[in-house]
């Protein structure tokens, strides 16, 4: 499919009832009720707090794709894009070939308690992505049961990543990232990893036309407690999707479209090809993510008392907080030092002047506010 065709489908079928970062069962349940008879919707389990875990099945093809989102409750961008994809399946014939070739089993919110509290962990304070072996949590058992019952040929492990990542050590934000997880300690490039790598390479090719230089891959260090590594180790090609930051897109609405493009591109490829893994090598050229970004850096600031220097840089990271069922971003000073090896999504030059807090005192690490004062002027840290 052509990129412009996919973008047009997104605009036409975007689910307008899902927006911003806070997505819970309450938001998706009305949508599930309106999907119609062509989508099989079931409650397949319950969370720690007895919230339902839903699963959807659509398609009639022999190629089986298992997709799960919000394993980490505060990573919702991939969930929004799933409903955009479902709307496209139901409202257009353009992806009919995918449903004829594939059957999709989708778990839109695996961790409903974490989604409701807007936390990474579940209600027992367990990271479900470190529970693949012990299966101590009800949500982990639900996913494992789905894997064993559905017997997928491909797994899509859908996540979101922080704004701290660059695509390589460069001034390019990792807006979308992928990984073909390792399945053993030596990180052997096995046949099923090659299949996952080939599919990622296809998605990367499409995304480079929209966000050149802003696609990364994660370090493939092996951890069998992670779900992706476990499923890969059981010889099912598994792909980690990470929805990251695009310029001024803290709502993750631009990234949502990029994830949609990735879904459609990859499913179209799977539907139309016998994916052998022979074309995996392009994956190896994608830069590895580096932790080299802050949300804001104030350069050339006069901050006495730090590292025995008069001039430093000030690194600010936004804290995501759930307030009255909405996500607010609170700027917090993380470091005051020389940050020449780091980049920022927004830079402010203090030109050697002092940087003060709301009480006209010199700022310190852990200071939180939406502005600072430079040369008697309030400077907003959050972009409008």
From TrEMBL:
Which GO BP terms apply?
proteolysis
Q: Does the keyword DNA damage apply?
A: no
Q: Which GO terms describe its molecular function?
A: metallocarboxypeptidase activity; zinc ion binding
Q: Where is the Peptidase M14 domain?
A: 18-270
Decide whether keyword Lipoprotein is in the record.
no
* Highest taxon in the source lineage: Bacteria
Spell out the GO cellular component terms annotated for this protein, sorted alphabetically and separated by semicolons. Answer: extracellular space
Q: InterPro entries, per this entry?
A: Peptidase_M14 (IPR000834)
UniProt keyword annotations, A-Z:
Hydrolase, Metalloprotease, Protease, Zinc
Which cofactors, by name?
A: Zn(2+)
Tell me which residues this entry annotates as catalytic: 242 (proton donor/acceptor)
Entry similarity comment: Belongs to the peptidase M14 family.
Q: What is this protein called?
A: Peptidase M14
The organism encoding this protein is: Flavivirga eckloniae
């Amino acid at each position: 499919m052509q990129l412009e065709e996919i973008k047009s489908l997104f605009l036409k079928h975007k689910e307008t009832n899902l927006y911003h970062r806070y997505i819970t069962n309450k938001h998706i349940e009305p949508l599930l009720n309106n999907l119609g008879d062509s989508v099989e919707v079931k409650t397949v389990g319950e969370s720690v707090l007895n919230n339902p875990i839903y699963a959807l099945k659509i398609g009639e093809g022999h190629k089986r794709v298992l997709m799960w989102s919000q394993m980490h409750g505060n990573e919702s961008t991939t969930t929004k894009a799933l409903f955009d994809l479902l709307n496209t399946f139901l409202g257009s014939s353009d992806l009919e070939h995918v449903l004829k070739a594939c059957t999709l089993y989708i778990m839109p919110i695996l961790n409903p308690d974490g989604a409701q509290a807007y936390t990474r962990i579940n209600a027992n304070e367990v990271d479900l992505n470190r529970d693949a072996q012990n299966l101590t949590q009800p949500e982990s058992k639900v996913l494992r049961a789905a894997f064993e019952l559905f017997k997928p040929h491909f797994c899509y492990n859908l996540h979101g990543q922080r704004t701290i990542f660059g695509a390589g050590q460069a001034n390019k934000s990792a807006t979308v990232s992928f990984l073909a997880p390792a399945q053993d300690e030596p990180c052997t490039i096995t046949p099923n990893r090659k299949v996952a790598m080939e599919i990622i390479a296809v998605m990367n090719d499409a995304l480079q036309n929209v966000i050149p230089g802003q696609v990364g891959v994660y370090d493939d260090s092996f951890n069998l407690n992670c779900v992706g590594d476990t499923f890969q180790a059981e010889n099912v090609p598994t792909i980690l999707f990470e929805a990251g930051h695009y310029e001024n897109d803290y709502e993750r609405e631009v990234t949502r479209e990029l994830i949609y493009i990735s879904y459609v591109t990859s499913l179209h490829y799977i539907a139309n090809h016998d994916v052998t893994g022979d074309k995996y090598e392009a994956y190896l050229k994608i830069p590895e993510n580096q932790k080299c970004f802050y949300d804001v850096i104030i350069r050339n600031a006069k901050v006495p008392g730090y590292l025995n220097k008069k001039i430093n840089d000030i690194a600010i990271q936004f804290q995501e907080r759930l307030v009255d069922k909405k996500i607010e971003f609170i700027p917090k000073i993380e470091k005051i030092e020389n940050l020449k090896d780091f980049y920022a999504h927004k830079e402010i030059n203090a030109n050697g002047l002092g940087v003060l807090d709301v009480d006209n005192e010199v700022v310190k690490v852990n200071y939180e506010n939406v502005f600072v004062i430079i040369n008697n002027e309030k400077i907003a840290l959050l972009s409008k």
